[in-house]
Amino acid sequence: MSTYVLIPGAGGDAWYWHRVVPLLEIAGHRAVPVRLPADDPDAGLDAYVTVTLEAVGDVQGDVVVVGQSLGGFTAPVVAERLGAAMLVFVAAMIPKPGETAGEWWSTSGFHDVWGDQQMDTMEHFLHDLPSPVLHELLERGEPEQTGRVMADPFPLSALPAIPTRGIAATDDRFFPVAFMDRLIRDRLGVAPEHVDSGHLPALANPAALVELLLG
């Protein structure tokens, strides 16, 4: 049995993983979806890491840390603290030492790809969600994401020296697959893997994502 630590993206909502958790549990693993303090204006990266470690508690078996989108800044630090067996970035912001999440948009090349597009939540994030999931998400409302965490430099001198994977979403309209493929190769030095979904695979195609995570 492994423990899967599931770190969400902007908004920090553990609900993002609610379709993934039962699939991991059916496969015999422990799943820990983390609620980050994204609505706390005083919470920076250290607070995100602390909350995640508290959510995990006692470790059972190997630990796999999974970071989605903005969660890519928290995941490597958690992986190092827990002595994780594997780190997985899913449609994620893969950080460099000393880089802030606020700087990442330029230093990663994202701004060059995005250009002057206007962000549209439905078009860029929710376009492929099943109707019942979309309805529930809209009923819940958009979680708040404060800006403090964007200003904290990534604190590690290098990513943890453990097996690390990068998963890009083939229909991602926010982090396009060609951009993510390049980022994964450049920053992780591994071949990108792909899940058939938009930017939110845990909601749009959880079975395919879990198949990759277990592979």
Q: Would you kindly provide a written description of the structure presented here, covering whatever features stand out?
A:
- This protein has ten helices and six strands.
- It has 215 residues and is an alpha/beta fold.
- The protein has one domain: 3-Layer(aba) Sandwich (Rossmann fold), CATH 3.40.50.
- A six-stranded parallel sheet has the order 2-1-3-4-5-6, with helices on both faces.
- Helix 2 (45-56) packs across helix 3.
- The longest helix is centred in the N-terminal third of the chain and has 12 residues, at 45-56.
- It is globular.
Provide the residue-averaged pLDDT.
98
Taken in chain order, the helices and strands follow as: EHEHEHEHHHHEHEHH
What is the oligomer described by this structure?
single chain
Low-confidence stretches: none
Number of helices: 10
How far do the termini sit from each other?
A: 14 Å
Strand content: 5-15%
Number of domains: 1
Q: Tell me about the largest β-sheet.
A: 6 strands, parallel
Dominant shape:
globular
Order of strands side by side in the largest beta sheet?
A: 2-1-3-4-5-6
CATH homologous superfamily descriptor: Alpha/Beta hydrolase fold, catalytic domain
Structural class: alpha/beta
Counted beta strands: 6
The CATH architecture: 3-Layer(aba) Sandwich
Using the coordinates shown, work out and report the CATH topology: Rossmann fold
Question: Over the alpha carbons, how many angstroms does the gyration radius reach?
Answer: 16 Å
Helix content: 25-40%
